[in-house]
Amino acid sequence: MEDKKIFNDIISDYEIARPGYPLDLFKDIMEYSLIKNGSEILEIGSGPGQATDFFVKNHYSVTGLEIGPKQVEFLLEKYAEYPNFRSLCTSFEDFQCEKEKFDLIFSATAFHWIKPEIGYPKAFHLLKKNGVMAVFWHLSSIIEPKDEKLIQIRNIQRTHAPQLDTYITEDEAEALHEQRISEIGTNNLFEKPVVKTYRWNDEYTTERYLKLINSYSNFHSLDKNKRQAILDEVASYINETGGTITVPQQVGLYMARK
């Protein structure tokens, strides 16, 4: 697991370089959950607001939870003109609220921080009758790459920091998928989840790709010299091979009704 608190110091690179989420994902959540303007929504782990943005700007009432005070400050400034948004500096485990308050609870590439035996039952009790839990994750950053450029970048990183080479195979990704479905079924509280997958290609310049590397908190477990060596070699490789790199993106969405 990455050190969550590192995100306080890499908010800017995270917002610029992480790939975000497709519009179709949000449309599918809206259609399944039947939320409407004014619906009460809880987001667990807002980060810099990549998934928050859609719900805030479409006038839902959004409460975002974040453990980093710098991230909360960033979000409150980002959405200062939206009275339908509030951000709280707390973990989901410590969050206090009356039961059956929310129409939708969602978490974007963050719910793996929470033990499923705690997270899903708590979400269930915070949801209104027929409320929906939606959790989704980016997968491209954890499944071993197949593109030649991405393989070469992996080799550069592995040379300097083999301990960070934690990609999983396609078979392991399928096992993770089954695990997530099983976790949603904790205590048999939710209905059978609806699962959707979204794929697209994301084009990165050298500068943006370096920010992507820097946005991963485990990268910051390395000493400064190793981090700089990786960034320098990756920059040289991308520049020497055209100055851009295409990153295939994949997001898995799981929705379940109370």
Task: Give your account of this protein's structure.
It is built from nine helices and seven strands, in the order H-H-E-H-E-H-E-E-H-E-H-H-E-H-H-E. The chain has 258 residues and is an alpha/beta fold. Strands 3-2-1-4-5-7-6 form a seven-stranded mixed beta sheet, with helices on both faces. The protein is globular and about 55 Å long. The model has no long low-confidence stretch (mean pLDDT 94).
Question: Which features does this protein show?
Answer:
seven-stranded mixed β-sheet; alpha/beta; globular; 38% helix; 258 residues
Q: Count of helices?
A: 9
**Alpha carbon gyration radius:** 19 Å
Model regions low in confidence, pLDDT < 50 over at least 5 residues:
none
Structural class: alpha/beta
Strand order of the largest sheet: 3-2-1-4-5-7-6
Measured distance between first and last alpha carbons = 29 Å
- The residue fraction in helices comes out at 25-40%
Strand content: 15-25%
Biggest sheet statistics = 7 strands, mixed
Q: What would the average pLDDT be, to the nearest integer?
A: 94
Number of strands: 7
* Helix and strand element order: HHEHEHEEHEHHEHHE
